[in-house]
Amino acid sequence: MGRPDTPERAGDPAAASATGSNGVPATRAPDATPAAVPAGRGEAQCHPHAAYGVTIRSELGPLAALRADPDADTALGGTPATAVLVPGYSGSKEDFAPLIDAITAGGIGVLALDLPGQYESPGPEVETDYHPARLGPVIAGIVADEEAAGRRVLLLGHSYGGLVARAAVLAGASVRGLTLMDTGPGELPMGRRRTQLDVLEPVLRRRGIDAVIALRDAGGEWSSTDPQVVALLRERLRRSTVAGLLGMGDALRAEQDRTAELVAAVRTRRVPCLVVCGLEDDAWPVSMQRTMADRLEAEFAAVPRAAHAPNVENPAALLDVLVPTWRTWLRDDILG
What we know:
Strand content: 15-25%
Number of strands: 10
Number of helices: 11
CATH architecture: 3-Layer(aba) Sandwich
Distance between the termini: 28 Å
Structural class: alpha/beta
CATH topology: Rossmann fold
CATH class: Alpha Beta
CATH superfamily: Alpha/Beta hydrolase fold, catalytic domain
Largest sheet: 10 strands, mixed
Shape: globular
Number of domains: 1
Helix content: 25-40%
Mean pLDDT: 88
Low-confidence stretches: 1-41
């Protein structure tokens, strides 16, 4: 299990397309709380925010994280709530920078994590320790510690982090809502991103991270991104562990469809779920994610002008989905 954290203080207004599990437009919660803090597209992972750095202790070692406290004036009352945000493959806590201040303005705290082995967080040397079945209990431990500290938890996982968040719930994480963002029911389908993993694995294994960075530079992968953001993306990839990238990459190509298990878990515990993705997601097809939502009897939303990372591609539209949905879940939780 994780243990309490140690402080180290250091828009696009378009609405998303949301439907219920039956494909009918979902009824938006009667909560007009706005995403009050604009989230600029171009700043992406470098978007300014009011969070402070903390270190979260976990069973796989310390994890760097960003914590932000909720706005007391907009909180719903009852036990405080925190959104625990889990990044994807080769990601980090900074992927959620454009969301932080708007979530806290909606009365919900934020704890954005590195996974073990990502960016500023060390990790084990065993590749299988980075599979969802191993990382899920790590996140479940962090959720348990948040609960022990008197905070209700809303859990969000992006991409590979969605597979980890699912594993956390299956490991018993006591969450008041689960959001799966740009993730699928199992392994990454064939396509550009799967091919990229296949191509980069032998390079990473034989020549290391610097060779992978050189290939990404040569391919122009970061050519259209702000230089400050490029510098951050390059640095966090360089500081990530080889074992972590290899282990997560292997799991992305082998993870089983565990949706049926998740359906049983969330029904038994009455955990509300949301599946949300970019309208142009090029990892797991949008149709596949919608089907997963149907199986979970979850709300579904597709964010316009976004692909696999609406959190940085169109954060304002994503926030228009997340904040009202989460506030409704919390209100329903208070009412019982």
